[in-house]
Automatic annotation (TrEMBL):
Entry's localization field: Cell membrane
Protein's organism: Paenibacillus silvae
Record protein name field: Iron(3+)-hydroxamate import ATP-binding protein FhuC
Source lineage: Bacteria, Bacillati, Bacillota, Bacilli, Bacillales
SUPFAM superfamilies hit by this protein: P-loop containing nucleoside triphosphate hydrolases
Topology class, membrane: Peripheral membrane protein
This protein's UniProt keywords: ATP-binding, Cell membrane, Ion transport, Iron, Iron transport, Membrane, Nucleotide-binding, Transport
GO molecular function (one): ATP binding
Pfam families xref list: ABC_tran
Length: 260
């Protein structure tokens, strides 16, 4: 068991966004969070990653309330990447990835040979060898996204949380990120929890899908269990055709606005 919510309520001050949430995110799996705009997807991800102060109760990581984890200890176990990244554009790819080692170092402690080896491995895993000394402002959107993911890998976490990592990328770079996530999961054993908008991308890569609607879980299960014509109507207000062949990933096409 990796992350678990038990009757969790999440909100900002008096404004509750998610109510009575009960979910288990199994270790070593890819979990995709879907839902319409404003349903609480990013809020849930931020709460799981201790990125926001909320009214949350009973979010457990390794059977411990996440509020009992120290900041650095938690960062050594779980890496969180927001949808929008801020950094000095003149920082090189290697320098950015080196930031991922900070949770493992004491204040003012310099990186050692082991740290540099871990950084080199993260660069290799994300296929950034030829770009390692290039500054961020000279990268494409997909290259920059891979650099940020490499920084998270350098933390050596058990869990990687990603907020819409394929947004604003063209289809080529979207598929690059999806293939990278698949490799990190299968080869490194990383548990992935991410927010996606593209239903077909989620169906293609996910072990489990969580669909949120108005701050509550509409459904949770495998892509074949969750992606149905009823869900698309109830949650997204669209009609669509679903291709569901056992030997292929489920796929959705021919979207139309749902009209009663």
């Amino acid at each position: 068991m990796t992350l678990e919510t038990k009757n969790t309520h999440i909100g900002y001050h008096e404004n509750e966004v998610i109510s009575a949430l009960n979910l288990t995110f199994e270790a070593g799996k890819i979990h995709s969070i879907l839902g319409p705009n404003g349903c609480g997807k990013s809020t849930l991800l931020k709460a799981l990653g201790k990125q926001i102060r909320t009214t949350a109760r009973e979010i457990l990581f390794k059977n411990r309330d996440i509020n009992t984890w120290g900041r650095k200890a938690f960062a050594r176990e779980l890496a969180f990447l927001m949808q929008v990244h801020e950094s000095n554009p003149e920082v090189t790819v290697r320098q950015l990835i080196e930031y991922g080692r900070f949770p493992h170092k004491s204040k003012f402690e310099r990186l050692n040979q082991e740290d540099h080896a871990i950084v080199d491995q993260a660069i290799s895993l994300t296929h950034l060898m030829d770009l390692a000394e290039r500054t961020l402002d000279r990268l494409s959107g997909g290259e920059r996204q891979r650099a940020w993911i490499a920084m998270a890998i350098a933390q050596q976490p058990a869990v990687l949380l990603l907020d819409e990592p394929t947004s604003y990328l063209d289809i080529h770079h979207q598929l690059e990120i999806i293939e990278l996530i698949k490799r990190l999961n299968s080869e490194q054993g990383l548990t992935i929890i991410w927010v996606l908008h593209d239903i077909n991308q989620a169906a293609m890569i996910s072990d489990h899908i969580i669909v949120l609607q108005s701050g509550a879980v509409y459904n949770f299960g495998t892509p074949r269990e969750v992606i149905t014509k009823e869900m698309l109507r109830d949650v997204f207000y669209v009609d669509a055709e679903i291709k569901n062949i056992e030997t292929e990933p489920i796929s959705v096409y021919n979207f139309q606005l749902f009209k009663e």
